[in-house]
Each structure stands twice: as structure tokens, then as C-alpha cells.
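Build the 3D complex.
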Amino acid sequence: MPDPILQISDLHVATAGKEILRGLNLTIRAGEVHAVMGPNASGKSTLAYVLAGREGYQATAGTIRYEGKDLLIMPPEARAREGLFLAFQYPIEIPGMTTLQFLKAALNTIRKHRGLEELDAIDFLALVKERAQLLDVDVDFLNRPVNAGFSGGEKKRNEILQMTFLDPKLAILDETDSGLDIDALKIVAGGVNALRRPDRAMLLITHYQRLLKFVVPDYIHILLNGRIVQSGGKELALTVEERGYGWLEGPDTRISEEKAAP
Amino acid sequence: MPIGDRIQGFAKNEYKYGFTTEIEAEAAPPGLNEDIIQLISAKKNEPSFMLEWRLKAYRHWLTMKEPRWANVHYLPIDYQAIVYYSAPKTERRPKSLTEVDPLLLATYRKLGIPLSEQEVLAGVAVDAVFDSVSVATTYKEHLAKLGIIFCAFSEAVQNHPELVRKYLGTVVPYADNFFAALNSAVFSDGSFCYIPKGVRCPMELSTYFRINAPFIGQFERTMIVAEEGSYVSYLEGCTAPMRAEHQLHAAVVELIAHDRAQIKYATVQNWYPGDSEGQGGIYNFVTKRGICAGVDSRISWTQVEVGSAITWKYPSVILRGDNSIGEFYSVALTTHRQQADTGTKMIHLGRNTKSTIVSKGISAGYAQNTYRGLVTILKKATGCRNYTQCHSLLLGDRCGAHTFPSIEVQNASSQVEHEASTTKIGEDQIFYCRQRGLSAEDAVSLIVNGFCHEVFRELPMEFAVEAQKLLNVRLEGTVG
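Done.
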């Protein structure tokens, strides 16, 4: 069995003074694709954010090991340079910087960190053209400021494009399927599937099992009220599709009534 | 930690030009009266028309009130506490660079402005103004062969009084505004450029202003006259030591472009901005104006304003010649407690005149950044066009961006476009960049440089690189 890339043990995370994750355990090994499913406010995005190192998400107990190292003490950019990639649920607009500039800066920072030579403008553009074609992304749109004025689908495709560039060891996709029509979903899923590799792990975070029809995970975990309450194979998604999350609710796993952030 | 706190926490703000030069200076006593003006005029051995003009300006200034309409806040200035004249002590003005005090040469070298022509930036002639006087001008002889006059203003008064007399105050009259009147009364030096008919100036002309002495106000006056069909590109830079008290800098710049002449004027203003609490720093109250006097003439202002505690500055163009073009490209960066109220005026008097305004304001910390613009197209000025683009970038949530655009069009055949946006770079954007491996500093620098690109490309190449570096240094630690 390959070594774990990610090992989460008894993780408790609070944000804005409220405990969201309450003793989460999860181990992901190289080559595996895991899906974490759960209803709104179950703690899905909190999991994504704490893994990426977003400020304001405080681990109050438990540990996260990333390739054996303590992830929680690493600043966000160090995590990224070590190969942890988060495809955002709501990709951020950055006016004043084109996607090409952004990508080139990010790629070369990461390459430098890995002891690789930085790409010059010509090699970089060649790579861009090749990858953009794969995801049916218009190169012109990469000359626009990052995500500014992009449609929901364009933003999501831009996330996956960045993922293909930055060559992650652990890719976390936070609700990448939300807001996509079926054609866009297929393109995005195709991009994700093309990235599956024996030395790379993926964590898909999703509310619905829609994406899981196209990107079939090895393991599915149901997150309820800050804890994983059920784990299984890909068939678990179908159970959720049929029965919803209600049947998993016990006295300890009440679904919080708060709504997730928009 | 909220982003505002981190912005403050990061605020290292290293100002590497903050040193002082221990040089013996000859200074007037503090305060302003007719005797001081007589003294300045006598020091400069000026012809009587200059003294008369200064005194008229002074008497008019006495009747004026300091403007209070700008969106900046500061304690009243005590005009009697300011030293109006300070000059490094020398027997006489050095004739050549070999006669310049080595201490001064060393100062400019330290500032990155080498004055010895062997090591000078390729293709740039420099006039160095130290406190109240010009201490050296490079490449003078070389330029003189083409008929170009590039010298200290005080020297022009001696050697070309007819030119000075013809143009002085024609673009910025002494009664124009409070600070222009003050400058007209007490200005001590500055640069003078004259480009004869049909000559294309082969190198960048540049003036480097340095305030060194304490309590001194720097009042310089620059004039550029471009005769028919000529071309000149000019750049000014400014720095000052770090001092706990505020110092006043009230300059006047007049540009005159005759038929088909073109003047490009660029400024990289890096006066000491004060510390993170707003202690010290330069008050930069400057009147800059050009006139496109002839047909098909063109004046463009490019400014990169990163220094000063307070900036009050509106480089403007009067478009009098038909088909003339006025341009204003500006980057104004304010951090900590800096305040900037800057913009431009485009006054269209001639037919088919065109103006372009591109303003980029960047604010971080507790700083306030204001764009103030006026576009006026008179009734007879038919077929005119103006395009204005005014963008503000806020770094963090404790700073402010303000815009006061004003447009007056008196005919129906002219077209005016105004485009504006305000963008906030906050925690989300920075986190997004960090998640892709970029440090917070790199992220901010990429965003800001992208934001300023349109203005930077108007600068001569070496200076564009310098401006970019300068911005990065000033931004260091503004967002975390």
C-alpha cells in the first residue's frame, strides 16, 4: 500500500468562534480519489479551507499530516509549493493581473521550489496553448484579468486549467460541479480524469453525486455535522442520490440549521 | 487578524533616501518678508524685472488664502517658520563638474544619480538641484551644439533673460493660486530648457531635486519651451531626508509647446512620505501646467507619485492650438497616513483637440487617495475629444479612494468618455494567490504592476523599471 499523502486525525476546526469540524478522520494515499459528500453546513468548505491554510479557520485539536509533515504549521504558499492545490468553490476575481501573468508567476514559483528551471515566455505560451485546448479554453480569455467577468463555468474551467499547470500531489476540488451545465461538467470532468495518476491523490468535495458519475471515486465519505459518519465505495453516492442525507442522521449528527455561505 | 492590522503590522516602509548630507550651507533666516525676497534676488544677481515680478507676486500672495478645498487634512502651516533660501556654501557656481563639491557628487551617487558624465545613465542629461540651487548640469556643451539650452533656471535668468522674460508666468501667472504666488515670490532655482525650431532633443533631459537642509522649503521653478517642430522628453525625480517635521515643497512648472512641437514630461516623485504614524514628510503643493500654444502640438504628463505626506498636484494642459493633444498618465500610491489629492485639467480652446487621462490611484494602510479632474471644452472648440479612465485600487479596508471628476462641454460636436472603477484587494485575493504558491508580497506586486502597466509604458524604459521597483519597495509589507 502506498504511503499516505494526507492523514487527518481527530481534527476539530472552529471559525468565527464556532466549532465546525468535530473530530474528523481521513487518510488519503497516492493514486486514490476520495469524495467527501455532505449537505449544506456539514463542514465541507471548512475542510477545504483548513487544508489550504485559510486564515480564520482555526484547528483547535487534532493533526493533519501531509507527506508526513505537520501541515498546520505551513503557510498557505508553502503548502501550495509542496503540491497541495485547491480548486475554489468561488474562484476569486483579481483585477489588474491577467490569467497568463498569474499562471506564469505561480508556475515559475512552484518550479523554482521544486528545483526545476523557470519557463521563459515562449515555452510557457506553448504549454498554455496545449493545455487550454484540452479544456476547451480560449487563449484570448487568458489575457483577461483573472476571473474578472468570467461566467461560472469559465471560472471553474480556469481552476482546472491552473490545476493542470501546477502539477499537484494532492488536488482538492471544492464543489467544482456547482453551477456547471452538463456540457461544462463533462469538460471539467474530462480534465480531472486526465489528471488521475498513481502518484497523485484527489479529494472531491461535493453536495450532489452529479460529478461522481463522470469522475468515479475510489472512496466516498459522508460528512455530517463536522464528522465523517459513513464511508464506502462509489455505490454510496447512489444511496445518497436515492435517500438523501436524512437516513444518516442520528441524535449525535443533527444537521445544523444554519445555511452555508452563498 | 483583520487585514487592516496586518497591513499596519507589515509597515516597514524603508525609505532608503532618508540620509542627510553634512554640508556647510548658507541660509536665510526663517520667515518671509520683502527683505527676504530682495535677498534671494540679490543672491541670484537678478535683473530688475525679476525682482519686480517677485515683489508683485509676494504682495498678491499676502491677499490670498491657502486653499482648503482639497481632500487633505493637515495642521496650519506657519509660513514664518520656513527657511526660504538655503544653498551649499561655495565661492561661486562651479563651471564644470570637476569643480563641484565632491560631497555633493557623492550625495547624488548615493541617490543613484551619477553626475560624472563618464558614469552617467546613457543618454540622460541631468540638472541637480540641491535645496535652493542647481549644483550641476551634465551634457550642457553637447546639447548647446544643437542650440538646446539646458541649465539652471538662475543661469537662464543671467544668460537668456529675454527668453525668461518672454515666457515667465505666461502659463502659470503669479496670481494663479496661493502656492504658485508663493513660489513666484521666493523661487530660488529649477531647470530651464529651450529646444530650438525643428530640433529633436537626442537625450532625456532630467532634473533631480533633493531637499537636504532642515526647515527649508523648496520652491523651484521649471520651464520648458519647445519651438516649432521640436521634441523633448524630460524627467524629474525628487527625494528628501527623513525628518520629524514637515517640509514644504511648492514648485511651479510651465511648459510651452509651439506649432507641431512635442513635450513629454515625466515625474517620479519620492519625497519622504513621513513615518507610519504620519510624523514628518514633505507637503508637496505643486502647480504644473503646459500650453499647447501651436497647432498640432502635444504635451504629455506622466507622473508616478509615491512619496510626500501630502500631495496637491494637477498637471494640466491648455489646448489652444487646433488639433493639439494633451495627455495625463498618473500612478499615485499612498500608504500609511499619506494623503494625495491629484489629477489634471484639460482645457480645450482649439478645434479638434484631443485629451487622454489615465489615472491609477493605489491606497493602502490608512491612506487617502483622491483623483480630481476637470475637462472643459469651450463653445468654439468644436470636434474635440476626451477620454478619461480613472481606476482606484484599495489594499485593505482602512484606506480610501475618492474621485471628483468634473466635465464641462459647451458644444455638441465634441465627445467625452469617462470610465471609472474601484477595486479592493483584500484577504480573498491574497489568499487565492498564496494558494497558488505566490507570497503575499509577490501577489501584491503583480497586481499593482499589472494595474499600473498602462502608465509605466509611457515612461522611458530605464525609468519604467525604476518606477516599478520603487512601487514594490513602497508596497513592501502593505498587505499580508
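The two ends of chain B are 10 Å apart (CA to CA).
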